[in-house]
Amino acid sequence: MTIDTDLATLRAGFMGNVSTPGDNDYDDARSLWNGMIDLRPRLIARCESAADVAAAVRFGIDSGLELAIRGGGHSFSGASCVENGLMIDLSRMNSVAVDPVAKTAVCGPGCTLADVDAATQEHGLAVPGGTVSHTGIAGLTLGGGFGWLTNGHGLTLDNLVGADVVLADGRLVRASAEENPDLFWAIRGGGGNFGVVTSFEYRLHEVGPMVNLGMFFWDLDHGGDMLRLVREIAPSLPRSAGSLVAALNAPPAPFVPEQHHFAPGYACMIAGFGSAEEHARLVAPLRDAGPLFEFVTPMPYVALQSMIDDSAPWGINAYEKALNVPDLTDDVISVITEMVPLKNSPMSIMPMFHLNGGYCDPGEDDTAFGGRRNPMYVVNVAAVAPTPDLLELDRAWVRQCYDALIPCARDTGVYVNFMAEYEEDRVRAAYGPAKHDRLARLKAAYDPGNVFHRNINIKPA
Ligand SMILES: Cc1cc2nc3c(=O)[nH]c(=O)nc-3n(C[C@H](O)[C@H](O)[C@H](O)COP(=O)(O)OP(=O)(O)OC[C@H]3O[C@@H](n4cnc5c(N)ncnc54)[C@H](O)[C@@H]3O)c2cc1C
């Protein structure tokens, strides 16, 4: 079989379109969020239906092309594109159907968080997502997904009630608690290893539409005090609130006094989903600690979700490493406060996600998610830079921070969605041996040829 002759057959039954180098939309379609990735697929199948996806998967297998599956295109590693292979682009499959009575939403795999939030908020509903609204729901859900609502309602994958999946043999199957439950278990944490998800069905919660935000910022000299304060207050936050702490430079935003634009330091943000009075009580200790400046305001939930979008715009150069620490211990704080002043790019950022509350509700083996279900911080050290040269400097800084933090880590686990490069030795550690081996057996059952390997790859047992 030659690719060129059979391409005509693929195109004939295809709802979307197939792009090749030289086509007008080719460069747009192959671009990913991380500007450091520059891969040139031989073909890009821009799917519009599950049938398109199945046809593209079959075509890729029959023609021997390496496959890459692109949801929102936000993997740091560039796993969703492929040199000289077939990129299956799902970005046009971005419809959202909300059932406000059942409180569920069926979402296409090309949706961004912004697409899902916009549709669900029309009914005052939401599913936990990430903190940057242009991120794709597909990769985020299949690996975990945590953000403002995780303290209340768990990970994104904890709220998945079903999915449609195109398997490595081109069959379309349903995965849920009732149908193919082993597949349903595996895709909730096992990433894109088991097939191409063509729709995600989520359980929704009542949120907003107005919520409260409190953002407090300290300079570098006061970072240690601030992190110790966060350590005190974060565990007692009610489930009606979510928090995020980050080492970063203050943005040149209207709510930042001009003299502090680009100042390096630390921000602590608390979002409240309950009453304004409750939120005021929760942020009082931060205000009393004398920040450099603060921004406390009611805002629409969708504005909270997109508030830090500009800190990581599409096409920026990026690299990251992450690890789990049990708490902001004195050792963790001293490494962080020593390392943060050494970063080179003003855009580089170190967010610390506190996982607690609803995150801890599911049992360890209810899903394939790798992180243990007791409270912890996921510390993400991210180099983000406008130029490749500056990125190189901060790539070294990221590795230096990571090495310094390793002795403080809770275990060797890592959140798979924060792996900027595929580190084979860390994959087994990410899941733990028992979960990894169960995933490897399911991989052997669902994708024995490892057709879907451009991901945090679990090799078939
Ligand atoms: C700016 C930024 C902010 C982020 N913030 C957060 C955050 O707050 N919380 C959080 O939890 N994570 C966060 N992440 C990490 C994010 O969860 C991952 O980058 C995730 O992989 C993005 O999914 P995507 O669909 O956009 O990526 P893609 O690059 O499209 O896909 C990622 C992986 O999933 C596979 N895949 C994609 N779609 C499918 C599908 N339909 N079926 C099967 N496999 C598929 C791809 O092949 C690839 O291996 C952030 C990432 C970025 C870049």
Task: Describe the structure in your own words.
By secondary structure, this protein is of the alpha+beta class. It folds into three domains: 87 residues, Uridine Diphospho-n-acetylenolpyruvylglucosamine Reductase, domain 2, CATH 3.30.43.10; 111 residues, Uridine Diphospho-n-acetylenolpyruvylglucosamine Reductase, domain 3 (2-Layer Sandwich); 209 residues, Vanillyl-alcohol Oxidase, Chain A, domain 3 (3-Layer(aba) Sandwich), CATH 3.40.462.20. The protein has 14 helices and 18 strands. Strands 15-12-14-13-17-18-16 form a seven-stranded antiparallel sheet. Strands 5-6-10-8-9 form a five-stranded antiparallel sheet. β5 and β6 form a beta hairpin. α1 packs antiparallel against α3, α11 packs antiparallel against α12 and α13 packs across α14. The chain is globular, with a radius of gyration of 22 Å. The two termini are 31 Å apart. The model has no long low-confidence stretch (mean pLDDT 96). Bound molecules: flavin-adenine dinucleotide. The site of flavin-adenine dinucleotide has 35 residues, from β3, α5 and β10.
How is this structure best summarized?
The chain is of the alpha+beta class. The chain contains 14 helices and 18 strands.
